[in-house]
Write a structure and sequence with these properties.
The structure is a homodimer. Chain A is of the alpha/beta class. Helix content of chain A is 37%, strand content 20%. Chain A contains 14 helices and 21 strands. In chain A, strand 8, helix 5 and strand 9 form a beta-alpha-beta unit. In chain A, helix 2 runs antiparallel to helix 5 and helix 8 runs parallel beside helix 9. Chain A starts with 5 loop residues before the first strand and ends with a strand. In chain A, 59% of the residues are buried. The model of chain A has no long low-confidence stretch (mean pLDDT 96). The interface between A and B is large, with 72 and 72 residues.
Chain lengths: 527, 527
């Protein structure tokens, strides 16, 4: 059942006076659930509780935290069809997508469970003493990662499960030993409450401290501001717009004690088509890209919004086929009237910029909240001199940039802001022949893709989901895969500390049996 | 020879109109060298050159970078006595300290040389493809660390060698593949120029790109501001005051593209004396701490500025002996008239706060620029309610806090700002008996020390030099040891990238022979 209330730790609470509803974009109607926005007192209560929980939770063993994370996954699966139905109503996305995202969410939780159960993620590093060293003795030093404190997680509009309430940020923070306070995304507050109820069940069932997780409803920006400015919040995870992420980053940087904000923000995911690939396979790539651009109504942060090539017959053929193909795809719904309205405005804005020509636009009548996909084209010179054309149009939209020559292509790439991904469509030999193009692209992105599409983010250790600003606020970290846990920890050293009082990861006898860097050698042996 | 000029890449340059001199605190006179502050055009020229150098330098192999770093160390050693003499004149520090710091600086350079020559620091992580996976094929993904771009390094007043021109920040940045532009510290610009000349010789001798290193003179704040605000600067390293570090952090956070600032700032390095230790060894610890407080005229970021204990005969005895001992130590010179004048002001300010009693003060006549060491004492209750008492007094000064009971001790610790270190003086059993005290301390510090002194920072992998804000602006990184390189890199993933075009660290055949995480197993085998 959806109550519309907040979870302040394990307790449901609705003390605020502000109410709001979620929206069913397919029915073009508000849903029947009323949500109660968290009051300032409730925000404070949730954070205070998370702070108290931190002192206990950070001491809990990896295997117990693993049990907690696995129980969350289990409880999410136990929500069964009810979760899928609410998800679909609040997003307009199809059941298949809902189920896939649920699977990914539970996979992430279990991956982090395995990580903390195994235990070597704390990067135990030991340098033993040399009491007789000349001129001064060398002390015994032992270093490991410890959690930084309560984390505020902001749900993403476009990933109600995998990057929201129990998504990657929450899973990695809980795995690290940090309590989490979620600011639920107002577009899918019902989905969020269901997931929160699963987490709270897991908290109770596995005996985790009350306050290790809270879920706050919010339709505006106040709850988020109060969270980020609260002195007991020590880090922030966010997935969403550049405007939103930058606002949180600015707020966190201005605090008396600044805290890290990991915002995964916009990206236009440039795709570079080298001439050889278009000479032989222009049609094939055009069909593939028509699918990638419209996948999920273009509502992915890895949506290919920029297609760059050099003026040629091959590029003409590619654009022609892409245009033909994309208008044949059945339009689908966007997540919310606000999102489609912004899509229409941004698209209109782009089309109005000098030198931008529409080469494909779905003009047939569409159902309410369904997006008309479009492709525009612009010359390299116009693109380079107009930074407005470098901005993201969130939705099924892409811009072809026709460069006069390779020099212009390099210049167009080098002038881009930071990106999550950069894709190269090329023959294998072409990479070597166009090294300067690849180098320019590499300096702008977090992930390079060869002969593929940027949509689809594999969850595995070698994935980097993040990139130079503004793809993310801190390019040194990523939001997907096990290394995402590194965002929530800091190293601490123990000098000459008695063995009995050291954390298990650093004890002489290595009771966890983990690999450690001991006197510059990796070993799982005791000392 | 000291020319007083800037190094813009490999070329000496003095186009600015502002001149300044360094100061010999022992002679209480300006030195004979005139330095030419870098003009805005020179700052721009240095950064542009570093940007051009970046595209080449990031491609240079680990073994060639290692040769470069070793050559820097060799060239620094070749400066021989000339360097030591200039260092001593510009700081008033003794020859032994100068030589020790030179040794540490060269050791750091060689440690990073070994690190990048070996090569596994890039954290190569590989997940191989599963083309037949259902429902969608798994791509091949390979991740490693790459340098972020040109770094601005700010020299530290109190470490002219180890944390300045060729210090830890420069060594780690150059090792990572990032060019460096140093803003030389105005108090030891001559020492800085000599070191810069050694680096430039190494650049030329090992064929590194011009612009991989520049050294800019500056007596004010403008050069630093221009550096941090330049769009081509991608990171900042700083060691110094909270005021200075925070100003740079704020500037960097407000940029259109925010960049990371790693500022290692103030710390009062709390030392907690548990009752048992003082019952049996109060005198011994008092003598040890009289030495630690006055070491290097108290001009270390790890200087023990706060001594906490519980009211007892043992604490009385400790304070009495500490007071007796410390006034017997011969006062020594501080680095600069500005520093001693600030020391006098801060000390006077502390003494004037309610409840603060002077228990030891060196009152005999001292030579010019020599600091009078002092110990003050305050009750726990007064300390807890007055945050002014939590601030650093840079110099040979320490405050004893006498707590009424353990609860008050915990409260005093929990109310502290973030610290580089926290020390516990205790019997081994006492750690277990006072777990809440230890937990409170652990949450506030980057390094915990048992029965020792915080001064002395061992350079080794297990050292953490950094801590919660304001000890450093980013507690997740440290400024000492091999892991300091992680500040200057970001991960990048290659998806389905042709083997021949992958960086060596990620190639199937593992030509570097480094350990890599391949499908979740660490191995040095080829794929």
């Amino acid at each position: 059942m959806i109550t519309g209330k907040n979870y302040i730790g394990n307790a449901l609470s609705a003390k605020g006076s502000k109410e709001f509803r979620t929206f069913d974009p397919l029915l073009n109607l508000e849903t029947e659930w009323t949500f109660y926005e968290a009051s300032e007192a409730e925000v404070k209560q949730a954070v205070d509780l998370s702070w108290d929980a931190f002192s206990k939770y950070q001491e809990i063993s990896g295997s117990r935290k693993a049990g907690f994370l696995r129980e969350i996954a289990h409880q999410i699966e136990a929500l069964d069809d009810h979760l899928i139905q609410v998800y679909c109503r609040e997003t307009g996305l199809p059941q298949g997508r809902a189920k896939g995202e649920r699977g990914r969410t539970c996979f992430q939780l279990r991956t982090f469970a395995n990580l903390v159960e195994e235990g070597s993620w704390v990067n135990a590093t030991i340098d033993t003493a040399e009491p007789n060293r000349d001129p001064i003795p060398k002390p015994d030093l032992r270093k490991m990662s410890v959690p930084i404190g309560p984390i505020a997680v902001f749900g993403a509009s476009n990933f109600p499960l995998a990057y929201s309430t129990a998504g990657g940020d929450t899973a990695s923070a809980l795995a690290s030993g940090c309590p989490v306070v979620v600011k639920s995304h107002p577009m899918h507050a019902g989905t969020g409450e269901l997931i929160a109820s699963a987490i709270i069940k897991a908290v109770e069932k596995t005996g985790m401290p009350n306050g290790v997780f809270s879920n706050l409803n919010s339709s505006g920006i106040e709850v988020g501001q109060q969270l980020v400015n609260h002195p007991k919040i020590k880090g922030v995870g966010f997935t969403g717009s550049i405007q939103g992420g930058r606002a949180l980053f600015d707020m966190a940087s201005r605090r008396e004690e600044p805290i890290p904000v990991f915002a995964e923000m916009g990206s236009i995911n440039p795709v570079v088509f080298l001439p050889g690939a278009l000479r032989t396979r222009a049609n094939e790539w055009a069909k593939t890209y028509a699918g990638s651009i419209t996948l999920g109504t273009g509502q992915f942060c890895t949506n290919p919004g920029l297609l760059l090539g050099i003026k040629s017959d091959g590029l003409n053929e590619f654009v022609q086929t892409l245009s033909d193909e994309i208008v044949q795809i059945e339009p689908s719904s966007m997540l919310h009237p606000n999102i489609i309205s912004k899509y229409r405005d941004n698209k209109k804005g782009m089309v109005g910029e000098p030198g931008v020509n529409v080469v494909a636009d779905y003009t047939t009548e569409v159902a309410e909240n369904h997006a008309r996909q479009a492709i525009v084209k612009v010359a390299g010179a116009s693109f380079i001199k107009n930074p407005k054309l470098h901005q993201e149009v969130f939705g099924p939209f892409s811009m072809v940039v026709e460069c006069a020559h390779e020099e212009e292509l390099i210049q167009a790439i080098a002038g881009l802001e930071g990106q999550l991904t950069g894709t190269v469509i090329a023959g294998q030999k072409e990479l070597v022949e166009h090294q300067a193009v690849i180098n320019a692209l590499q300096n702008r992105v977090g992930r390079l893709i060869f002969n593929g599409v940027p949509t689809g983010v594999e969850v595995c250790p070698a994935m980097q989901h993040g990139g130079p600003y503004p793809a993310s606020t801190d390019s040194r970290f990523g939001a997907v895969g096990i290394h995402a846990i590194e965002r929530w920890v800091r190293p601490i050293s123990y000098q000459n500390w008695p063995n009995v009082s050291l954390p298990d990861a650093l004890k002489d006898e290595n009771p966890l049996g983990i690999p450690r860097l001991v006197n510059n050698q990796v070993t799982s042996e005791p000392i």
